[in-house]
Amino acid sequence: MAHVVAKSVKGPRGNAQGGSDKYDNLILLCPTCHRHIDKSPEGEFPVEMLFEWKTQHEELVSSRLGVEDCSSFNDLKTKVARLLVDNHEAWQSCGPESEIAMNDPGSNIHELWDFKKISLIIPNNKKIINLIESNQELLNSRQYQLFSAFKNHASSFEQNQYSRLDSYKRFPEEFSKEFTDV
Questions:
Q1: Contact, 26 vs 1, CB < 8 A?
Q2: pLDDT one-digit tens code per residue, 20-49
Q3: What is the pTM for the complete model shown?
Q4: 51 in Cβ contact with 5 (< 8 Å)
């Protein structure tokens, strides 16, 4: 992680105020590029260029995370439902309330669950959020409220995977009922 505007006034691309440690002023670079950019002559990698790189990369990532236009709510619902079904299947087959986990609390099924949370559920949740956000004009106010509850769940669920929270928002069942045929 690199600062676009250096934290220090005298650092690369520094200014009188100094750059913040907030997301808006940070960019991901490999160690080699980070060093190369910071050691290059002043002006070779201006702030505007780095912000443009960051924007382009975020757009690329978004395009790969399910951002696409849907022609109707039913079209959106079908795409969201498929992702929710995949998540539910993982939860049902190896989650903490799965048959295996309930019948054999000493099993190592939790290791598969830990993997599924990171490799499947979190990416699917991001795809769902991106799909709905890019098609939110198709939602009525109730559907948007359910979506908002899902976003709160998804962000706290993800945060809990990286640094254990005392509690987090559970999956909103009403969201599932609205966005699947189940």
A1: yes
A2: 888 888 988 899 999 999 999 988 999 999
A3: 0.64
A4: no
